[in-house]
Amino acid sequence: MAFEKYRGAATAVIEAVGAFPGQGVHSMFVFGMHYGMLQMALTAANIPFEKVAPVTWKKNMGLARAVGKTDRKERKRLSRELAQRYYPDQEGINDATSEALLLAHYCQELHKRGAYATTHIEKFAAGSPRHK
User: What pTM was computed for the model?
Assistant: First the structure.
């Protein structure tokens, strides 16, 4: 496999998201299709991944207090400021990129602690297809 030389060097976290009220059927279908394609690509590349609920990683990053207590604009501002603190030399951090960067940082911290020891395929083969 083309990605075999990277085995063990990469880990991914996918935000476990779902539909929101008011979203169109077509847009949710397309989103779900891309969500599945991402999981398939990671599995095909033998890159271990976990699904994590937004509240889980935000709590870990110290953003949980903002969830549900502030409006969307304020939550985005807090995420942007936190990402800028973690990565002061990174250009282009904005509302669209800050949470992706924080989710990647969360993944990196889990990987440092050894939280990812097996691939998605190995977990499935071991009888544990459910992701956290």
Answer: 0.69
